[in-house]
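Deliverable D4.2, example record:
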Amino acid sequence: MIQGIILSIAISLFSALSVKGQTNTLPVIHINTENKKAITSKTVYITGTYFIFDSKNSTMNIGSEESPLALEIRGRGHSSWKGDKKPYKIKLAEKAPLLGMKKNKHWALLKFNEATIVGLQLGKIMGMDWTPSTQPVEVILNDDYIGLYFLTETNRIGKNRLDIYEQPDRNEDESTIPYGWLVEVDNYIESNQIFIQETSKWKARFTYHSPDTLSSAQKQWLINEFTAINTAIYDEDKTNSTWEQLVDVDAMARYFIIQEVLDNSDGFHGSFYLHKDMADDARWVAGPLWDLVCSQREKTDYTFRMKTSYAFTPHWIGELIKDEDFCYAVRNAWEEFYPHEIESWMEYIDEHLLPLDEAFEKEKTRWSYSNNATLEERKEKLKSSLLANVEWFNNNLPSVIPVAVNGLDMAHKKVVKVEYINLAGVRNSKPFKGLNVKETTYNDNSISTTKVIIKD
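Output generated by the structure prediction step:
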């Protein structure tokens, strides 16, 4: 008798949570704004409540319909905000480990895009410093089923996110200003932004995400820092490579590979994040990844050279691939990835997209998709494009030296050590001011030397 009552209550609860359109094949996040107020701003949060119900795994449930938890919510995105279906930024009143992801207040609800889950996993495979995690959900907003989303960790400095030193707001201390930054090369004008004249044809915009508010000293340092990086990258003497003392070459190489494999045209002009920790030899590191796209077209060149339906500026990458050290770093990172990581990546795509098929059919109906392809068909098309991109890139690895010199396979040599030697014969991993000899040792014990001049 008691078991029957419990079962009846459970069925009633499940039924109540199912009448709004969701399939319940995925966790469902229910959000209600105060007085059912519409979310119209990308800058102003409005208050509300939420709870998460997972019919397949009750340990993931947070809050309940009777006892929801507090949050604030606003819109987010640029071009993605213009569509009928909107993406959102969420700030919880209390930190929570949503759907098995690490505890935090700050989250994003991103519109469904296969490249999100595929690209973020590639970032983890490629060993980026930190890559956001994401989980698929169905969303009920103010009693309206709004479809399939990815609940995603946001790019922030913090213990459970990008775990580096964080630069304080309005800092005036010149000894600490060079450390603890998170910035984004951006193609939209924002208020929290500096810019530099990258070339005579275009400017580069840098949106600072941490700290939030700059002192005049911080702002001037940031302008000077990226001006110096830009000058070093555009140095006509590509044997100089002084940009490597400011930017982590290996992380930049891995970031480049990810954009090429995805064929992501936005990779070097928007949502291009860079961060810098606190250490004596701290350099700017590419990442974390964000806003990933897979063009799914025939790849015939490096992505930044291929035409798109919109104009964009491929910041820096056109110069970096002229640099021998960058090309070696790309090849070294590629050899860690190709071919042995490909099969497991494809399996991950199958395992993480196939369970979304029922929710995706609801998504298509809710938002009147013009393309009626099933998720299985879309998944196979995506995998085919990615595999083609992988093979194209493997056959077109960047190199600024001949593939063979005196019978040696120079293009596949690995850099194992780089040292700088000053006029007194002292060696160091970083260059000295003035004249240096840069000595590069390869895995076959061969050595190359170039002259490097570091100006005061």
